[in-house]
Amino acid sequence: MKILVCISKTPDTTSKIAFKDNNTQYDENGVQWILNPYDEWYALVRAIELKEKDASISIDLVTVGLADSEPIIRKALALGGDVAHRINAVSNDSYYVAYQIAELAKKEQYDLVFTGKETIDFNSSSIGGMVAELLDMPYVSLACKFEINGTTATINREIEGGEEVNEVVLPVVVSCQKDMAAQRIPNMRGIMAARTKPLHVIEPVAVDALTTIVKYELPPARQSVKLISPDNVAELARLLRDEVKAF
Amino acid sequence: MSVIIFIDQTEGHIKKASYEAMSYGAAIAKQINVPAYGVLLGNVNDDIAALGKYGVSKIYHVTDEVYNHFDAQVYTNAIAEIATEAGATVVVCSHNQSGKAVAPRVSVKLKAGVVTGAISLPDTSNGFVVKKNVFSGKAFAFVSIDTPVKVISLIQNSYGVNTAEASAEVITKSVAATAKIKVTAVHKVSGEVPLTEADIVVSGGRGMKGGEHWGILEDLAKTLHAATACSRPVADSDWRPHHEHVGQTGIQVSPNLYIAIGISGAIQHLAGVNRSKTIVVINKDAEAPFFKVADYGIVGDAFEVVPKLTEAIKGLKA
User: Fold this and answer.
1) What is the distance between the alpha carbons of residues B127 and B123, in angstroms, rounded to a whole number?
2) pLDDT in tens, A129-161
3) Which has the least CB within 10 A, A197, B243, B252, B294?
4) How far is B34 from chain A (nearest CA, A)?
5) Which CATH superfamily groups domain B195-317?
6) Where are the domains of chain A?
7) Does A163 touch chain B (CB under 8 A)?
């Protein structure tokens, strides 16, 4: 069985968010790049756990990015990916990115495609659904549990106030979130092995982006907090009623 | 031409998030001078014509049994088919669990650019530009949709609900489909307000010193009809169940009011809650970073402040 895990590089959670060129570009100066946490902790690690139970499983990785994505690809290989594909392009348009991934998936015929539920920079949660549509496959989003039995997957997905259990025959695209897998770190053997694992660089196929980012904006500075004395809790209740209209 | 709004239901009831999506879609329709129509998939017990009060003049109700359960693929086909039939130039849904699965698929199906996680009405003065949250709520992006048809998913509680006296014409339809996904079970957390749907969230952190102290939070939550939540260390210590964990790696919420009790406000926690409209922080440490993003705060002992707050609210409600 072949699993494709879609990965992306994102700024570390604690990175300072700033923009340049008249607020049209994210200022990457001094930014620490990481493997998007949802891609790593949930999508990739769950794929690795499945492979540990069934050695016939192979794990491909794909990212759409330039050469500066290679450190996060090597990390994903060190964790346990087998082969990586880097599609040599950069785009902020989800459709463009999903299209590139779907083209690879059509050639490689994966049984299972995993993505993180979203990236922590654009928060779009779009790639999984788009890839599924482009491949005409079913899609289960916000999965928190994934088990496989032969060619049938049993997947728990988040719904309002609980979880729903879905059964689906492969192939399927799944977006992954917390509870899917236990977080782990690469070991020395993995890091050494990752150096010689194949990393294919593929040129993108031509496709139009459907959206453009016009500009960015930082939120207005919050008004400083209105502090209420702990001896006057009733005042907070009044504010919650009169200003916040909470009840 | 028209604006089409996907009306989401579960177990026969329209989801609250869809009232807001309809209000938002109707406002876009008004802005570009076209009618707003709803698409409802699956059977519901609610009064469908009455949904006209949220601004939709017509509702396409697809009643084939297959739509009683959510399957992103068959839902997408039905929404896209109706959108095409109704000449939709904009398709709107909530950025909730279903919307996150459907919006990107519909976008591909209609070759329409999509903005997911929109937070306000599009600027249609020159093109079609939608404002959305990026960097986990730490910035906004203005995204131009460059295709004739546009798809938008709206973050919950970011626009609000508008009503006016009106009723919608209901058109019952059949769109044949076979679902590939079989729903075999539903595990609901019973008797509580669902966290992602809640208007108000009462959340506790390490400052609560143990799961056995949660009673005072639950009392406050009950008084405000709020959902309860917690920070990651609390869930990791098994003081509270994991599904209550909000933050970067947990659930992201955008309620009208988030009350943080005994939570310091680490950046990973803030990433899950900073889309909240109003934030109240109760913490005995005046230096807690959470106060920097709070609207109201009390520096004090939660074990004294929270019961007093609950009593004061009960007093004002009486």
Assistant:
1) 8
2) 999 999 999 999 999 999 999 999 999 999 988
3) A197
4) 23
5) TPP-binding domain (3.40.50.1220)
6) 2-222
7) yes
Inter-CA distances, B274 with B113, B127, B258, B270, B278, Å: 27, 29, 9, 5, 9
Cis amide leading into B104 (omega within 30): no
CATH of domain A2-222: 3.40.50.620
Please, are residues A135 and A106 in contact by the beta-carbon 8 Å criterion? yes
Determine contact: B100 vs chain A, CB below 8 A: yes
pTM: 0.92
Among A161, A213, A239, whose Cβ lies nearest the Cβ of B296? A239
Q: Measured between beta carbons, which residues in chain A are less than 8 angstroms from residue B96?
A: 160
The mean pLDDT value of chain B amounts to: 95
Superfamily of domain B2-173: HUPs (3.40.50.620)
Residue A225, pLDDT score: 94
- Touching A: B residues 248-277, CB under 8 Å: 248-251, 256-257, 267-268, 271
- The 3-state DSSP class for residue A58 equals strand
- Which residue on chain A is closest to B291 by alpha carbon? A225
ipTM confidence: 0.94
Say if residues B136 and B269 touch (Cβ distance below 8 Å): no
Contact: A168, B196; criterion CB under 8 Å: no
Domains B2-173 and B195-317 fall in the same CATH topology: yes
A82-125 residue pLDDT tens: 999 999 999 899 999 999 999 999 999 999 999 999 999 999 99
For B76-100, the pLDDT digits (tens) are 999 999 999 999 999 999 999 999 9
